Structure formats: structure tokens, C-alpha cells
Amino acid sequence: MAGKHTSYDRRNMSPAAIKNKRAYDKAYGAQSALIKYRTELNKKNREDGTYGNGDGKDVAHTKDGLKNRRNRRRNRANNGQKKGRSQRAPRRGTRSGS
User: Fold this and answer.
1) What is the pLDDT of residues 14-66, one digit of tens each?
2) Is the pTM of this model over 0.70?
3) What SS3 class is residue 46?
4) What share of the chain is helix, strand, coil (3-state, %, to 5)?
């Protein structure tokens, strides 16, 4: 069994739940569309000369396609943003911001 991830502890996942999640993740990652997507990203990184050289750069996912090289952490952080949304406004009636 692979190493234990800290998120499993935060979610209070049982060993059976971890096993089910790993099986799901394995099947999800094996989908032909996702394999094609990862292949495209790796190909672009190789063309740019940034694949495996340790510079910490990734190809950015822009609206126009895969273009710019960006810091890996910053680029992957974009996945957490919802499309067409900026930061969520504070809830009314709370003390935050007062």
C-alpha cells in the first residue's frame, strides 16, 4: 500500500475508504481522455525544454490554449478558482471586515 497522505487524517478516512479512493483515482486517471490530456501537456513541456530540467516551470493553461511557462505552484493553484468568479464576498451579519 502506498504512503499515507495527511488529507486522509483530516478527513478521518478509514483504511477501507482509503482503499476505495485509491481504486477510484487509479481508474479515473486511466481514462483515455485524461491520458491524452497529460500527453499533450508533457509534449508541450518537452518542446519548451522545461520537462525534467528542475526549473519548476509548467505550461500555463490559458483560455487560448497551452501557451506560457509559469511557476508550477502558481499554475496549479488556478485550478481552485471557479470560472467567472473572483473571491467570495464576506457573508452579511458576520464580524469579519467590521
Assistant:
1) 999 999 999 999 999 999 999 998 888 888 888 888 888 888 887 776 777 76
2) no
3) helix
4) 45, 15, 40
* Angle subtended by helix axes 15-29 and 32-48, to nearest 10: 70
Sorted by sequence, the CB contacts under 8 Å of residue 50 that are 6+ apart come out as 57, 58, 59, 69
Closest C-alpha among 28, 69, 34 to residue 48? 69
- Residue 61 and residue 78 in contact, taking contact as beta carbons nearer than 8 Å: yes
- The CA-atom distances, in angstroms, between 77 and each of 10, 55, 61, 70 are 20, 18, 11, 11
Distance CA 30, CA 24 (A): 10
What CA–CA distances, in Å, run from 18 to 15, 23, 25, 28, 49? 5, 9, 10, 15, 37
Q: Does 88 score more than 60 pLDDT?
A: no
Looking up cell 477501507, which residue turns up? Answer: 16
